[in-house]
């Protein structure tokens, strides 16, 4: 009998739908993953004959993959803390199947979140090498100038502690006296807010309405809907190869 081909442990966990590949790597580093009773290493390979446990609980058989759009309201924090009443965990725990969010929106922002148990797709969507587009509607505290638009489009750098961050050049259009629409291809922490702050502006409202080919459209705040087969097919095609 031919033994099943092993896979890298983090990829195996992500494909099971338990969490993203990045989160799986963190669990392995923390020493909470075991294979057949032994503490796992990042270089371990596993297959269907192995028993993988996380926090002592066996990894379930791979479930059917699910893809859901969620319109996150302001006030929901994209952490996964069961003891936090504002955590996205309180939303996810009510679902019939274990899902996680692809990426984050800060607590003060609203808009489109993709919920899934497809760890491999999640990894591709979050990796900066793929240049996935994300669109945001943004309101500011004062009138926008042509210099502001030009500076945002060219890229902005800012300092946090000892680390310097640099935004990529992006698409941006003014949509009102104090509103603009921006399309990013990276996902730095609170990026738009820091870009605006560096240029002397404060964000008063921020909503993400697009992730790649997925659009928020008329989905009501706090509601969810499954991806259509066409949306999923397009998303998978667009997520196959990194952009040059």
Q: Could you walk me through the main structural features you see in this protein, from its secondary elements to its overall organization?
A:
InterPro entries: PsdUridine_s_RsuA/RluB/E/F_cat, PsdUridine_synth_cat_dom_sf, PsdUridine_synth_RsuA/RluA, PsdUridine_synth_RsuA/RluB/E/F, PsdUridine_synth_RsuA/RluB_CS, RsuA_PseudoU_synthase, S4_RNA-bd, S4_RNA-bd_sf. It comes from Rheinheimera pacifica. GO terms for molecular function: 23S rRNA pseudouridine(2604) synthase activity; RNA binding. The protein has helices at about 10-15, 20-30, 90, 120-125, 145-155, 190-200, 230-240; strands spanning about 5-10, 35, 40, 45, 50-55, 55-60, 65-70, 100, 110-115, 135-140, 155-160, 165, 170-175, 180-185, 205-210, 215, 225. The model has no long low-confidence stretch (mean pLDDT about 90). It contains seven helices and 17 strands. A hairpin with an 8-residue loop joins strand 8 and strand 9 (about 110-115). About 25% of the residues lie in helices and about 30% in strands. The protein is elongated and about 60 Å long. Helix 1 packs across helix 2. The chain has three domains: about 5-60, RNA-binding S4 domain (Structural Genomics Hypothetical 15.5 Kd Protein In mrcA-pckA Intergenic Region, Chain A); about 65-130 and about 220-240, Pseudouridine synthase I, catalytic domain, N-terminal subdomain (Alpha-Beta Plaits, 2-Layer Sandwich); about 135-210, Alpha-Beta Plaits (2-Layer Sandwich). With about 240 residues, the protein is α+β, with helices and mostly antiparallel strands. The strands form four sheets. Strands 7, 8, 9, 10, 13, 14, 15, 16 and 17 form a nine-stranded mixed beta sheet that branches. A four-stranded antiparallel beta sheet has the order 3-2-5-6.
